[in-house]
Amino acid sequence: MKITFPESETKTVVDNLKDAMGERALSKIVSFEINGDDLTVTLSKLGKSTLHFSRQSASEGSTFTLTKEKIALAHKALKGEVTQKIIKVIEKAGGSVDK
Question: What is the pTM assigned to this prediction?
Fold first, then answer.
């Protein structure tokens, strides 16, 4: 999975994602951590799932590529549904997803 944003700073991307989530139920279980320029997304409810993305600079903006994922057993059945919700948040934050 690749995610592209027009912003070049990882912190700005994370701020936009948090704003796009607003008060959705998803915002209560999803957290973001910046490691250098890379991004880790953690889902915590009935287990803990982590998605690690590495950042590549683009001519305009940033591209984050999924490099590692660890999905909790309780989350596996809901992976497709949660992925679709996260994609909607990404798009609302101005990003695009290439699976």
Answer: 0.85
